[in-house]
Write a structure and sequence with these properties.
- The protein contains no helices and 11 strands.
- The chain has strands at about 1-5, 10-15, 20-25, 35-40, 45-55, 60, 70-75, 80-85, 95-100, 105, 110-115.
- The strands form 2 sheets. Strands 2, 4, 5, 6, 9, 10 and 11 form a 7-stranded mixed β-sheet that branches. Strands 1-3-8-7 form a 4-stranded antiparallel β-sheet, with no helix packed on it.
- The mean pLDDT is about 95.
Length: about 120
């Protein structure tokens, strides 16, 4: 089992920044293959945002967030971050952290609202 606890969402004006955190724990965490973020806007399907490959640390981003969002990790804290800069109203969504390995686990979601 893996538990994921997210934090860092909120309300920000367009052009602003937020940093999301996802703290992971659990007995199978050491077998993680990748962690990252999805988001779901009202009335839309959940979509991929960013991923970090655990072995090697390479990253993958959705095209619309490249150059604005950065995914990173703190190994000592078992935490993944999503630094979001130059936020746009279309980034408004609930952001979900996930962990893939033996099984896929999801966080509870954190709301990000970007006002114009």
């Amino acid at each position: 089992q893996v538990q994921l606890v997210e934090s860092g969402g909120g309300l920000v004006q367009a052009g602003g920044s937020l940093r999301l955190s996802c703290a992971a724990s659990g007995s199978t965490f050491l077998r993680t293959t990748n962690m990252g973020w999805y988001r779901q806007a009202p009335g839309k399907e959940r979509e991929f945002v960013a991923s970090l490959i655990w072995s090697g640390g390479s990253t993958i981003y959705q095209d619309s967030v490249k150059g604005r969002f950065t995914i990173s990790r703190d190994n000592d804290k078992n935490t993944v971050y999503l630094q979001m800069n130059s936020l746009k109203p279309e980034d408004t969504a609930i952001y979900y952290c996930y962990r893939a390995g033996p099984g896929i686990y999801w966080g509870q979601g954190t709301q990000v609202t970007v006002s114009s």
